C-alpha cells in the first residue's frame, strides 16, 4: 500500500471492513428467497486467506526494475504479491469469481506509482525500451476486463497506478473549467472542487472507486448526465503520454480541427497512451437540488414519460425509471423504518389500487431538478404535466433522498450475494426511443429462457438511467443462483445473452462501461467491421509493437468465450 | 449541368442572376467609403466570359471513363470544362480571386454524379484501381481549400458530386431521428422534413449551398446550435463508403464502444471515405420561435451577457452579439424603411445617450427562443434579467425578423465587394470564456497593424455566434481594399494574422469551417504535434495509397503559404 493511494480489497469491492448488511432490511431476505430460492440468512464461508493464493512470481527484470526505481523511486515500484493481485483484475463479477477461486491469470510483474507527468513519460519510455506491456490503472473498478494482461503474455507486464496524480491543479472560474490530474478518485475530486464552490456533476455508480482518467478512458456516464453530460461532453481538453511524445489538447468548447483526437482518446482504454490530466467543465453548486419520486402503472408508461420529459421544454438533471422487478427490489431493500419501504404504505397502495394498477407492474421513477428555487418550481410543473399525461403519481422527495444516500452502495451487495452463491453483475446499452420498451422485454424473455436451459434460477431487472433527445440508456442488473464450480461459465451465458440482445435489437454493446476484452466480441456488430477496422488501424499506427494494453477493444474475443452466438 | 443537381456560378457564390444590391440601402455606400475608402457606387468591370479561361484538358483515361460510365451511366460522367471548373475550388475568397483571374490550379479530370450508395462503392473501387485521387463534393461552399486537388497532382482526379443523393429516406418519429442521404442541400432537406412537421435545426451561413454530408465532413455548426447542437451532436449514425468496405454506424444516442468512430468520420473531409447517408436528430417544429434584439453599451458587456445566459437556468436557441463595427455594418446595411435602420431611430438613440453610452461602441445582440408560448415567456424573463444586469436594452422582435430573412445572403455581398476590389472573407474560432474578450481585442489590433504594414485599408469585425458552457465561438469577417494584382498575397497576410492569433490566444484553428489545406499549417499549434501525428496515422492506416482527398487536414502547409509565423 502506498501512502495516499487508496486500494480496494483483493477479493471484492471497496474498502476492507465495509460490507452490505441485510439484517435491518426485513423484506430483503424473503424477496431473494422468493425470486431465486436462496436463503441469504444462512452463515457463509469466510473468504480464503490471501496466503492460500498461488501468486505467480514477478518476472520483472533487474534492468527494468532499476530503470523504474530511477524514474519514480524504489518506494513506488511494488512487486509484492498482494499489490500485484489487486492490480491483476478489475471488479467485474467474473473477476471476483476468478480471484476468489485463486485463478489469478497473468498477474502484472510490477505496479508503478508515478507522481508526476514527467515520471509517466519516463516510465513509459523505460517500459517500451524493455518491450514490456503497459496497463494504466485508476480506481480498479473496471468490469469489462480492461485492466488485465492477456493470459498468454510472455513480455513483462507493468501496471501503472495513477493514484498519486490526484490533485485539482487549477480552476478557470471565468470559463467554468478545471484542470485536474487523472488519477483522482471521484470523492477526492469533488471534495477539492466543492471546497471552492464548484462541482463537475459526474457521478457514475463506481464514483467512489473510479478516477477521472478512468472515466475518460472508458467513456463513462454519471447519474446526472442529463444536465452535466457524459464524460465525453465534460472533458474539454487533456494530456496523454504516448510513446515518445505527449499529446496536449487545450480546453476548447468546440472545434472543427479534423477528426476529433479528443474523441479518439475518450474510450481508448490505455491503447493510445496514459492520460495524465484533463480540463473539464465545472459548474457552480446549484442553489436547489431536488429528487422527486413518481410511480407509473407500468414500465412502458415510465419510459414514455422520460422520453416526453427530455423532448419537452424541461431540462432536468436526471430522469430515471425502474422496471417492475427493480421497483420491487428497491422496495424490498428499504430499511424497516425507511422512506422507501414506506412507499409501499397503505395510503399509496390504496390509491394505486383505486386507479386499477397492478402492484406487481408498477415502476418507480426519480426525476432530478437543479437551479434556482423558482426554476426548480417551474421545471417541476412541466414534469408534473408529463407525469400526469402518462398516468403517473408523484410521491414526493423522500425516496429520492434515500436514493442519493445509498447510490454508491450497490457493488457491496454484489459481494454479499457472491458470498451466498449468487452471481450478480450489470450491463448497459443505449437505443433509440423506438426500441427502448422492445429491447427490455426481449432481454427479459431471452434471459429467462437461457436460465431455464441452464437449469438455474436467475433474474434480470433494469432501469432507464440516462436520457438523450433520440434515445436512452437502459441499465440491466442480473442475479443467478449458482454456487457450483461452474460460476464462470454460468456468468458467460448470462453476459452473452444480454450483450447479443443489445446488438440484435438496435442497442450499443455498452453505453458507459467501455469495451475491454469482455465486450470486444460484439464490436463488429456494434460499429460494423469497417468501424473495428478503423479502430485497429488507429491502434496499430500509434502502437506498432502492441505494448499499450494489448487485446482491449479490438480483439478476436476474450479467452473463454468461444462463440458470441446465442440461440434465442 | 445535371438535372436535379443545383450548381453554383463558376466565378462566385450561389445562383446565376442572384446578386447583392446596395441601391436600396442608402447608408451602405457611405459606410464602406468611410471605412475603407472605396466608392461602391462606381461602375464595375463585368466578369470575364468563361470562354476566356484556359481550362487544362481532362486527363481521364479511356479505361477509367469506361468503368465510370458502366457504374453510373455516361450521362453522369461529366468532363466538360465548366463542370470541371465549378468543381475545382470551393468558395473561399482566395478561390474566387484565383478563378476570376483564370488561375485554375489542378482542375479535376472528371465529375461523377452517383445516384446510389452502391454506385459510390463501385466508382470508388474503379477510381482506386486506376490509382486516381477521389474528392467528394457537396454544395461546393467550402472555404478552406478542401475541394481542390493538390497543384502537382499527376494522378487522375475524380470529383464526386453527391447531389443526386438528396432524399429523406425515413423518419423514426418515435425517436426523433431521420435517415437522410448525404448529398442533400440544406433547404431541400428542411423542406422534406418540414413537410412532415419536423426540423433538424441546423442552419449554418452556407445553408443554401451546403449539404448534410459536407456538414459532417467539416464538423459544421448552425446558427441555432445552442439548442440543436453542432452537427457532431446532431449526427447520431452514418454510412461511409471506404476502400473495399462500407462503414455503417447505427443511430445511437450515446455509446462507450471504444474511440468514437463517428467522431473520426466527423471532420474527415473525404480522407477516410465518402459519406453517403446519416441518421440525425430531428425535432418537432416549435410552437413559438422568436428572436429578440438587445443593445449593450459595449461588446464586452454583450459577451458577458451571453456567458451568463448559457450558464443560467435558461436554455436559449441562440445567443449572439456583434462587436461595435459589425453593429455599425448591420445598421448601415438596413433598407431605407427597414427595421434595422430604424434601430438607429431617434428615440432609441436618445435613450442610449441618456444612459451615457458611446454610440460608436454599442453592440447589437440577438437571442433566440423556442418552445411553448409559456416557455418562451419564461425564458425571456430569465434573459431579461441577465440583459439588465449587464446594462443592456431590449429593442423587440423587429431586427431579429429581418436577420432571419437575410441570414443566408452575406456571401453574395462578398462577390459584390470583390467586383469593387474589396477582399472579404470570414474566419472563426472558439475559446474558453476567459479569453473571449481578449482574443477579440488582440485580433483587431494585430489585423490593423498588418494592414498598416501592407499599406492597404482593411477592417475586421466579429460576432459571438455559438455559446457553450465553458466558452464560445467568435466569428470574424474582414474586408480589405486591394484591387491590385496582389490580392492573393494580401488575403494570405490577413488570413495568417487571424489564424495565428487564434492559436496564440487559446483559440482553435477553426470552430466550424474545417481544416482543408488552408488551416493545416496551424494544426500542430492547435492540437499539438502528437495530435496531428494521431490524425496522420489514422489517414495512413485507412488510405495507404493517399488517394482520398490527399493533402487535407494533415499537410505541411498549403502552397503559397511559405510560413505561418507572424511578427505581432
Automatic annotation (TrEMBL), chains A, B:
Keyword Lyase part of the UniProt annotation: no
Active site per the UniProt annotation: 475
UniProt-listed GO biological process terms: lipid biosynthetic process
Residues marked Important for enzyme activity (site): 320
Cofactor: FAD
FAD-binding PCMH-type domain span: 104-285
Residue ranges crossing the lipid bilayer per the database entry: none
PROSITE patterns, sorted: FAD_PCMH
Residues reported in the UniProt entry to bind substrate: 414
Keyword annotations: FAD, Flavoprotein, Oxidoreductase
Region spans: Disordered: 549-568
PANTHER family: ALKYLDIHYDROXYACETONEPHOSPHATE SYNTHASE, PEROXISOMAL (PTHR46568)
Family of this protein: Belongs to the FAD-binding oxidoreductase/transferase type 4 family.
Protein name: Alkyldihydroxyacetonephosphate synthase
Organism: Tessaracoccus bendigoensis DSM 12906
Source organism phylogeny: Bacteria, Bacillati, Actinomycetota, Actinomycetes, Propionibacteriales
Amino acid at each position: 500500500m502506498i501512502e495516499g493511494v487508496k486500494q480496494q480489497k483483493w477479493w471484492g469491492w471497496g474498502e476492507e471492513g465495509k460490507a452490505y448488511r441485510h439484517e435491518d432490511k426485513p423484506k430483503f431476505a424473503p424477496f431473494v428467497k422468493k425470486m431465486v430460492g436462496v436463503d441469504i440468512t444462512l452463515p457463509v464461508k469466510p473468504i480464503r486467506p490471501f496466503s492460500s493464493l498461488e501468486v505467480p512470481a514477478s518476472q520483472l527484470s533487474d534492468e527494468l526494475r532499476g530503470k523504474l526505481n530511477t524514474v519514480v523511486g524504489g518506494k513506488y515500484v511494488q512487486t509484492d504479491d498482494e499489490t500485484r493481485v489487486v492490480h491483476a483484475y478489475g471488479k467485474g463479477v467474473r473477476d471476483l469469481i476468478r480471484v476468489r477461486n485463486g485463478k489469478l491469470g497473468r498477474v502484472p510483474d510490477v505496479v508503478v506509482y508515478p507522481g508526476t507527468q514527467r515520471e509517466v513519460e519516463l516510465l513509459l519510455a523505460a517500459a517500451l525500451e524493455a518491450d514490456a506491456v503497459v496497463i494504466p490503472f485508476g480506481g480498479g473498478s473496471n468490469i469489462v476486463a480492461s485492466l488485465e494482461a492477456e493470459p498468454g503474455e510472455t513480455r513483462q507486464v507493468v501496471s501503472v497506478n495513477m493514484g498519486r496524480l490526484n490533485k485539482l491543479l487549477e480552476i478557470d472560474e471565468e470559463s467554468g473549467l478545471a484542470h485536474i490530474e487523472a488519477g483522482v478518485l471521484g470523492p477526492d475530486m469533488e471534495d477539492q472542487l466543492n471546497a471552492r464552490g464548484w462541482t463537475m456533476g459526474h457521478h457514475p455508480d463506481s464514483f467512489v472507486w473510479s478516477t477521472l482518467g478512468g472515466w475518460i478512458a472508458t467513456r463513462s456516464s454519471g447519474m446526472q448526465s442529463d444536465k452535466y453530460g457524459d464524460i465525453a461532453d465534460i472533458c474539454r481538453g487533456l494530456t496523454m503520454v504516448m510513446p515518445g511524445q505527449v499529446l496536449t489538447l487545450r480546453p476548447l468548447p468546440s472545434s472543427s480541427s479534423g477528426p476529433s483526437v479528443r474523441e479518439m482518446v475518450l474510450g481508448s482504454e490505455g491503447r493510445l497512451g496514459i492520460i495524465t490530466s484533463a480540463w473539464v467543465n465545472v459548474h457552480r453548486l446549484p442553489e436547489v437540488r431536488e429528487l422527486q419520486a413518481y410511480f407509473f402503472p407500468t414500465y412502458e408508461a415510465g419510459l414514455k414519460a422520460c422520453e416526453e420529459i427530455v423532448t419537452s421544454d424541461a431540462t432536468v438533471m436526471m430522469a430515471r425509471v425502474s422496471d417492475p422487478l427493480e421497483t420491487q427490489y428497491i422496495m424490498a431493500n428499504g430499511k424497516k423504518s425507511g422512506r422507501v419501504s414506506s412507499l409501499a404504505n397503505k395510503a399509496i397502495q390504496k390509491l394505486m389500487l383505486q386507479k386499477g394498477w397492478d402492484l406487481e407492474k408498477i415502476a418507480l421513477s426519480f426525476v432530478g431538478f437543479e437551479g434556482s428555487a423558482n426554476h426548480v418550481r417551474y421545471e417541476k410543473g412541466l414534469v408534473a404535466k408529463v407525469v400526469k399525461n402518462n398516468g403517473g403519481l408523484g410521491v414526493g422527495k423522500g425516496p429520492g433522498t434515500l436514493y442519493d444516500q445509498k447510490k454508491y452502495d450497490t457493488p457491496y451487495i454484489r459481494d454479499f450475494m457472491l458470498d451466498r452463491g449468487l452471481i450478480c453483475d450489470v450491463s448497459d446499452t443505449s437505443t433509440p426511443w423506438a426500441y427502448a420498451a422492445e429491447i427490455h422485454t426481449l432481454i427479459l424473455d431471452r434471459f429467462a429462457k437461457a436460465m431455464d436451459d441452464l437449469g438455474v434460477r436467475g433474474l434480470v431487472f433494469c432501469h432507464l438511467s440516462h436520457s438523450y433527445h433520440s434515445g436512452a440508456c437502459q441499465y440491466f442488473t442480473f442475479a443467478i443462483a449458482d454456487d457450483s464450480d461452474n460460476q464462470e461459465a454460468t456468468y458467460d451465458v448470462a453476459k452473452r445473452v444480454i450483450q447479443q440482445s443489445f446488438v440484435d435489437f438496435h442497442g450499443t454493446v455498452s453505453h458507459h462501461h467501455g469495451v475491454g476484452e469482455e465486450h470486444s466480441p460484439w464490436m463488429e456488430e456494434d460499429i460494423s467491421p469497417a468501424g473495428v477496422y478503423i479502430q485497429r488501424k488507429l491502434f496499430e499506427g500509434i502502437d506498432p509493437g502492441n505494448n499499450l494494453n494489448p487485446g482491449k477493444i479490438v480483439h478476436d474475443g476474450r479467452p473463454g468465450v468461444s462463440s458470441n452466438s446465442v440461440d434465442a
